[in-house]
Amino acid sequence: MEKAEAHQGNLARPPSRLRGALLLAALLGGNVALALGPWLVRLTDTGAVSAAFWRMFLALPFLVVFARLADQRLGGLPFKTLALVALGAVAFAGDLASWHIGIGMTRLGNATLFGNAGSIVLLFWGFIIARALPRGTEWLAIVFALAGAGILLGRSRDISTTTFVGDLFCITAGLLYAVYLLTLQGERGQFGSWSLLVWVSVFACPVLLATALALGEPVWPTDWTPVVVLFVSSQLIGQGLMVYSLGHFPPLVIGLALLTQPAIAAAIGWGVFSEALTWLDVAGMALLGSALVVARAVRKG
Q1: pLDDT under 50 in the chain at which residues?
Q2: pLDDT at 4
Q3: All residues at 6 or more sequence positions from 6 whose CB lies less than 8 Å from its CB, including other chains
Q4: Distance (Å, rounded) from C-alpha 36 to C-alpha 44?
Q5: Comparing C-alpha atoms, which of 194, 183, 187, 182 is closest to residue 81?
Q6: How far apart are CA 152 and CA 232, in angstroms?
Q7: What Rg value do the Cα atoms of the chain yield, rounded?
Q8: Burial of 64 (C-beta count, 10 Å sphere; 0-12/13-18/19+)
Q9: Exposed, middle or buried, 63 (CB in 10 Å: 0-12/13-18/19+)?
């Protein structure tokens, strides 16, 4: 469930072919880099939540540099704004912690799909706020999401209780990510993409470290390689390419590009960890993945 912060918008003029190709390469490259995250989480010899702490903590100085280079302010923000960011960061820390725990328990394809379920949660939330019933393709997203999730959860329960519980942790992560986005939706305009990531990291890192210690996890790695590769690929390369590219594409294209993540994760799970995939698994993933694409395409703002 790798996510990137970005402000979406349209270009003032159509990009050249070369620029368009570079933006598309960045969008796909960012998703590929983020798709490697679950594999690297499993390779770390720390606890799952500890790995979440390190990926954010090690990236923090680089995020500050990126924010400075982009001329995005980091100080002088109102107390109310920082308080809401802190609240959102707690939800984001819970999102990462829950997702990392789930990664170690369920299949990588499931973990990635369920971890990205925040888009569907936001779609449901929109119906509640508007006090309106879904229309058109919105019904399609709901039906596909429920059918796909039902198939994948049923398959996980057949495999083992641990796998099923892992799915639930990843679904919880998706819910918490939606809470994070909703908490900050009124404050995002006061930040640039990088400065928001800086402040979220500042508040989320202590929460993750405290959670890891409370769970009795090993925090200090004996092998730093997976941890370093995780923070570089996910927090720097993945986040960087996504921040660079997201604002230049419509939600439908972004949703379609997002499907590279579960596809790659499922392939790694099958090839590296011998996680079996039946035709029923593929059908469930296709349905849930389609729901994610539709949810992003119809999402407002």
Answers
A1: 6-14, 301
A2: 57
A3: 193, 242, 243, 246, 247
A4: 13
A5: 187
A6: 31
A7: 18
A8: middle
A9: buried
Name the pTM for this structure.
0.89
List all residues 6 or more positions away from 213 whose beta carbon is below 8 Å from its beta carbon: 219
The pLDDT tens digits of the residues spanning 29-42 come to 999 999 999 999 99
**Per-residue CA distances from 62 to 17, 198, 236, 237, 290 (Å):** 31, 9, 8, 11, 35
CA distances, 141 to each of 114, 133, 166, 252 (Å) = 14, 13, 24, 13
Closest CA to 154 of 244, 248, 278, 50: 278
- In whole angstroms, what is the distance from residue 93 CA to residue 112 CA? 17
Of 157, 192, 158, 167, the closest CA to residue 67 belongs to 192
Distance CA 281, CA 270 (A): 12
CA atoms within 13 A on the CB side of 43: 17
Q: What is the DSSP string of the chain?
A: -----------SSPPPHHHHHHHHHHHHHHHHHHHTHHHHHHH-SS-HHHHHHHHHHHHHHHHHHHHHHTT---S---HHHHHHHHHHHHHHHHHHHHHHHHHTTS-HHHHHHHHTTHHHHHHHHHHHHHT----THHHHHHHHHHHHHHHHHHHHHHH-HHHHHHHHHHHHHHHHHHHHHHHHTTTGGGS-HHHHHHHHHHHHHHHHHHHHHHTT---S-S--HHHHHHIIIIIIIIHHHHHHHGGGS-HHHHHHHHTHHHHHHHHHHHHHH-----HHHHHHHHHHHHHHHHHHHH---
